[in-house]
Specification:
Blueprint lengths: L1 H9 L1 H30 L6 H46 L2 H7 L1 H18 L2 H22 L1 H48 L1 H6 L1 H50 L1 H4 L4 H47 L18 E12 L5 E12 L3 E6 L5 H8 L7 E6 L2 E2 L5 H5 L2 E4 L17 H11 L8 E2 L2 E2 L6 H15 L3 E5 L7 H17 L3 E5 L11 E6 L2 E7 L3
Length: 542
Amino acid sequence: MALFTYLLRSSRRLFLLALAASVVSGGAGASFIAVVNYALGRSGDIPAWLVWAFTGLCLATVVTRFCSQNLLFRLSQDLIYQLRRRLIDAILGAPLRTVEKTGTPRLYSALSDDVVVIADALPGLPMVCFSAAFVVVCLVYMALVSPAVALASLVATALGVAVYRLFSHYGLRHLGAAREQQDRLFEHFRAITEGIKELKLDRRRRTALAGDQLDATARSYRRSGVLGLAVFEGAAGSGQAVFFGLIGVLLFCFPLWLDLSAKTLTDSVMVLLFMMSSLQGVLTWLPVLGRASVALRTIEERLERLESAGREPRLPGPAAAFGDWRQVEFRGVTHAYPGAAGEEFVLGPLDFTFRRGEVLFVVGGNGSGKTTLAKLLTGLYRPEEGTVHVDGTEVTDAGREEYRELFSAVFSDFFLFDSLAGLPDADRAAKAEHHLRRLQLDHKVSVVDDRFSTTALSQGQRKRLALLTACLADRSFYLFDEWAADQDPVFKEFFYTELLAELKERNAGIVVISHDDQYFDVADRLVRLDYGRIREEVSRGR
């Protein structure tokens, strides 16, 4: 089983200890039955050693079962952390384009659901080991009582395992289909939560997207999930039927074929009933373990996709190599987006220079490639062709993270963190309060324990907070992607005439993606993009 293999790789010592405790518990439980049968079959006084054996087996069964479960609880929590940590590291380490192609709903469902499904299945593993040890000891005991009955029980057990394997393959296939539909459900959930305003305004669209399409996906998910789980239940029922059939053979056929005493027959049936009870406990966990196998396979597929794209080198400490840069140069840089029907949008080839201490405006229509240019400039995308140079030195994969350390950016699809952790330490709380006053947010937001007291603000106010954190980062190159689009005239004026001038005085490089033509004269240079190509470059001669 894949789950066993993964646990052996990730937490070998703890997992083996838990399994060993489960095996001891199962063996002790089966030995307990043998002691009970022996005590019931005796006549006269009960010897002291039998009492001590009974007591010892009771204690051993309870204590080892407790130890096994406790170890597995610890292991499950460690496993949740390890899997999530590995997924997060893979997401942060993979190229941005790979993460975007994988999709937020797929990654979020792996982090939030698949990991929990695996952790919830771990308590079933000791039960499997307990039952395996229990069955082995019971078979050994029955071999001592009646080799013929032991052989029949062994055949029945093997038949039950074969039936389970036959059913499980079919069941796992349907559980895998349900897991694929779950990703689609997460996409629907995201559309509903993020598009709630639009859906409330449009009844027909709400019915189509949050009704018909969601219901169709949910029905498909439910159908595959129910069928998969039903198959496992069928496997459980088949296993029970095999043992019921064996008990029937013992009761009604063996006495006709073999010379078995009533005591031997009673002991054998009693042991089989205990074996059935133990195996029934395992069978209840089979659907859970099946779902865990599907979840683990899904996580491994997500990780393989992220890690196969190559892990970006990480800096051990602060960047230094490009600290005194003067210019960033594109040499034949291109980037392509493939379309669904085979068409593609190509940005470039671009031959262009960005200079320190200069305000550069990038303008153009929607879809002209402005945001893609921003991601190439900041090192978030690798050029598919061409190279990026800083003062003549090529930015390679090994130095890409160091190159990114030059930039502070507010993208059009920015994310606002409520924590200031990781920003430069020197007086950051005081600086944050200063910027809050300048941006007229101090009456709504304060800094408490290095966090914003709230981020539940309007879009324009949230963008002002994002601008605040960008300024606190104190970098030498700033990029603003449509920052002023959601601002009122007062803050547009502040941004274009005051803030950009302050950053320029600090000798920072500044790139502004904008449609505000009334402020184009603020730029030292203006570049116009059209369908991925530079169609116009205007220098203001400053």
